[in-house]
Amino acid sequence: MNNALSIQGLRKVYSNGHEALKDISLDVEQGDFFALLGPNGAGKSTTLGIVSSLVGKTSGCVKIFDYDIDTDIVKAKMQLGVVPQEFNFNQFEKVFDIVVTQAGYYGIPADEAKRSAEKYLKKLRLWDKRDVASRLLSGGMKRRLMIARALVHEPRILLLDEPTAGVDIELRRSMWEFMKELNEQQGTTIILTTHYLEEAESLCRNIAIIDQGSILANTSKKELLSNLHSETFVLDLAQPLISPPLLPGFVSRVNREGGLEVDIPQGQSINMLFSILSQSGIDVVSIRARANRLEELFVRMVEEGK
Amino acid sequence: MGPYRTLIAFQTIVVREIRRFMRIWVQTLLPPAITMALYFVVFGNLIGPRIGEMDGHRYMDFIVPGLIMMSVITNSYSNVVSSFFGMKFQKSIEELVVSPVPNWVILTGYVAGGVTRGLAVGAIVTALSLGFTDLQVHNALVMVAVVLLTAILFSLGGFINAMFATKFDDISIVPTFILTPLTYLGGVFYSISMLPEFWQTVSKVNPILYMVNTFRYGILGVTDIDVGFAFTMIIGFTVLLFGYSLHLLNKGKGIRS
Fold first, then answer.
1. Residue B77 belongs to what domain range?
2. Domain boundaries, position A49
């Protein structure tokens, strides 16, 4: 299968001498849902910036569907839709005009551009705002406008830099659904950077972790999560506890609600835990895996990388 | 991008530029119309008869070509500098940077926008001047060619200014401290033959003098300078500034890190 994105030996040194990327290499397969994770200043936005031509590279090779950005920049750019972190549209233009104009930059004739703009503005629930000046939109709407604008020329790869930053939970969920649908039904390769590890965990198939300009890990989410030595389960109890009970073989603590959080080593049977709890007269009402498993792994890897 | 798609991209930039200056017509089209109408009334109608003839023409007839040219110069320059810097400031220039539009198309698109506004204002001022004078066109080809080339040249100047500008102050420095003095000293209101020889020589270093005089030649048939030399100079500067603007765009000056 073709790689949607291939980065080899990419290096970026800014004019102030800061080395933002130190010889990074990574491949993203066609149709993938890929996350680039890292703390602030890790080099995520610089990487996406170089891929989308907003940032010049110092050295290295970037290919988008085999089109080298040094020799085939026009074809490479045709494959890309870019949603940057900061709002970057003309605040005085109307929503519809912004999207149609962007299509024009890709050489799409006016009628086709208007149809495509209508399609994506409707999908992103912005159609009723089409004649509104963009500065009057709410933060979430502005973010959706940038997604509609990035998709108007039907790109094969969508790059999203922190797409749900500052977006409320409901809207975040609906944007996740939209991105999933885009990836699964249209086959669009999606590459995103995010701070929300829950976002990467629930959306992405492959993940790269970047810190201080170097890739610390680049693998499938499944494999990455298998590196977790234990997983934490949250147990809601009929009678809240004040202190953790004695659970031989398990590490546990009481959470704020009086429930139990238990770290269960990988491969260990969970039945034993229930057996001990039952013998201790502790009645478990419900059980769930704690979200943000990735967060634990991420923090550990970044700490180890330092 | 093939030629058809390139043409659509070019058209998109030009239409967006025209839409921008039409949307804010109170800031872009109305002020030059009011200013120039005042010039016509005060200098042409009130003071002009006391000045008498200039180069064998009524003073009003003499200043009209210069004032039209002044509007074209100022408006083509300010359209490109404010639009391009505005896009840089709002970061909406990134829409173009990530798109496959070739840099020469971006440049010609902005220049075409600047030329359109320059010519639109020039046409408004010309229409206003008809209320004060009867314009006789001596050489239409010279008149059209010089006004078009001047609008292109100053649109390119505005583009370069915008590429270097990092704050709003930077886009008003050149118009205020360079463009305005050169325009006023460029023979809009007087013939340089009135000046002592030394100042005539100094005036001939001012490129705007050549544009104003060539345009005046196209309308009145009188000029202080050699029209052929003027065209050579304007074309030369246009080629030079186009090349430099493209070089800056290719380097991503002020728009790519």
1. 3-251
2. 3-225
Q: Which residue in B has a C-alpha nearest to residue A100's C-alpha?
A: B12
User: Count of domains in chain A?
Assistant: 2
Digit-coded pLDDT (tens) for B72-131: 999 999 999 999 999 999 999 999 999 999 999 999 999 999 999 999 999 999 999 998
Q: Which of residues 46-65 of A touch B (CB under 8 A)?
A: 49, 52-56
Min distance B114 CA to chain A CA atoms (Å):
18
Tokens of A276: 């001990």
By CB atoms closer than 10 A (0-12, 13-18, 19+), residue A92 is middle
Rounded-to-integer distance, Cα B3 and Cα A303, Å: 53
B105 close to A (CB below 8 A): no
* Tokens at A137, concatenated: 């939109």
This model of the complex carries an ipTM of 0.86
Quick one: closest CA in B to A153, which residue? B99
Q: Tokens representing A181?
A: 């649908």
Across the interface, of A75, A87, A108, the residue whose CB is closest to B8 is A108
Residue closest to B234 by CA, chosen among B109, B86, B113, B73: B73
Q: Is residue B257 part of a domain?
A: no
Q: For residue A12, give the chain B residue with the closest CA.
A: B257
Q: Does A92 touch chain B (CB under 8 A)?
A: yes
Percent of chain A with pLDDT over 90: 48
Which residue out of B1, B4, B12, B24 would a mutagenesis test of the A interface target, given it has the greatest number of A Cβ atoms within 10 Å?
B12
Instruction: Tell me how far apart the alpha carbons of residues A42 and A195 are, in angstroms, rounded to a whole number.
Output: 11
Question: Which residues in chain B are contacts of A91 at CB distance < 8 A?
Answer: 90
CA distances from A19 to A55, A60, A212 (A): 13, 14, 9
Query: Are A192 and A292 found together in one domain?
Result: no
CA distance A10 to A192: 18
| Domain end marker among A162, A190, A225 | A225
Q: Report the number of distinct structural domains present in chain B.
A: 1
